[in-house]
Here is the input.
Amino acid sequence: MTAVELSPYLALILVGFLPNEVWRVLGLLLARGLNEDSEIVVWSRAVATAILAGVIAKLILFPSGALVTIPLFVRVAAAVCGFAAFVGVRRSVIAGVLVGEAVLLLGGFLFVR
Amino acid sequence: MPAPATFSSSRGAFLGGVKSALTSVFCPVIMGTYIGIGAIAHDFGLSAWWLALSSVLVWAAPAQVILISALGAGAALFEVAIAVSLSAIRLSPMVVSLLPLLRGPGTRLRDLLLPTHFTAVSVWVESLRLLPAMPQERRIPFCNGISVGLMGTAVTSGFVGFYLAAGLPPLLAGALLFLTPMSFLISTARNAKMLVDRLALVLGLVVGPVLSNLDVSLDLMWTGIVGGTVAYAVHRLREAAA
Here is the structure.
């Protein structure tokens, strides 16, 4: 079954809210004993980071909608330049995002028309 | 603005929390993030009100990005739930470390329900920074105030991004859609302080598209389990060798 067959609001509750909230409630029930350095927390953080990284890469490499019109090499170049700016400019998130966006817009402007 | 410790009432503490949320460094970050998420939600065909409700109920940007992109791409509900849930495990230790700051002798369990739901990276960082200077009886309303301020920013920005994406010319709409992967790539890298987290980030960036291209079913889940476990194994081997 996919979300198309189910109401989007029901899907939000069942596969968005509940699987997310269960970890907060578990934290409330545990309230002590689980610390940030415990091995299970380190592993689960690595799994979560890898999932998020996979989503990020897919959004850049296989986008939908308006981003499709911007060529793949421009999207990848923008992400690389943005990341380089983040590393170069005192690990600033804002600097990285601004440079990445600027490269994307410039590349889009030059190569789309 | 009075010093945080001098709030004379719960109401004052709540409003002080809202105010500190709107002046926090997280405010512009959340605006940018949720403008991007608004654009993605529009792109994947979800409604603006659906997005607003998801910001209130889920209140975790990574989970919302996964939820929206996976639902919009027609992934199996089981897989969406697993991927969302795996992205949310980090919330447990945050709740565990926040609650002792909020709980006093007269605190009832139901007073802790809202702060528990509000726990997210931004709220957690700001609470741990500001609450210790405050008398215990003002901490829960102050924490709720921070949360309402940041959540309100997220909901408003989501609407802004949604309607901007609907009305902008293609190149600018593309730039708006790019905001989510770009800002998440960088903020994830910034949060990755340990080798295991950095490795997981790199592995996920590579394994995710490869599995997706191979049409592996439940590709997100496998990306997390394979990428995360390999990163963790390398981390353990290096610790054992050291």
